[in-house]
Amino acid sequence: MTKWDQKYRAGYGASGTPEPALIQPIANIAPGAALDLACGRGRNAVYLASRGWAVTALDSSQVAIDELPGTIDARCIDLESPDFQIAPHTYDLICDCNYLHRPLFPQIRAGLKASGLFVAVIPMIDDDPAVTPMNPAYLCKPGEIESLFADWEIIYTTEHKPTRNPSGRRIAELIARKPEPERGWPTRDPSRRRVAELIARKPRPERGWLW
Predict the structure, then answer these.
(1) CA angle 11, 47, 126 (to 5 degrees)
(2) Where are the domains positioned within the chain?
(3) Which strands make up the sheet holding 171-177, listed edge to edge?
(4) Cβ contacts of residue 210 below 8 Å, gap of 6+?
(5) Quick one: how far is CA 161 from the chain centroid?
(6) Element (H, E) at 55
(7) Residues 137-152: pLDDT tens digits?
(8) Can you give the pTM of this predicted structure?
């Protein structure tokens, strides 16, 4: 039995209350395909499923996964394995709450469809002596999460003490929307941009010439 299996069997995360940062973003959008990373006992996955989302929930604890209802595609997976991959262009929503594994961020970016939402609630480095120490590898730095999605539409971002636990560890919250593909020539390719500019400036031929 893993450390997390033991924690969940002892009652960890039993509240079942969804993350507040997740509730508002989905209130006025049509449900689609959602991925819940490090889902734990499924508080966010169950909430999404109850609102019509087709949810895939992943966690490394079999004890936690076994508690999720059959309406959710729940899988026990090591998210830190080199073999784990998020399928590209598959999800309308990906949520990552209270879990940080930096190699997943490029996969999250690729796994969302255009206009898809990413909701993150990530524990932060916190100098408060009252906070339980954690391995800093699993804690984000100020501004880190927002910077990883700076080229997306940032709907909401904040770094603060948890509202429900003011004495707890600081968290970074982010809600970001993946942009639609740009129309026309990709502006990030300088050579193609130059060709597009030349075409735009080229005069129309005189009548009678083949174009």
Answers:
(1) 60
(2) 3-183
(3) 73-76, 54-59, 33-37, 91-97, 112-123, 171-177, 153-160
(4) none
(5) 20
(6) strand 54-59
(7) 999 999 999 999 999 9
(8) 0.82
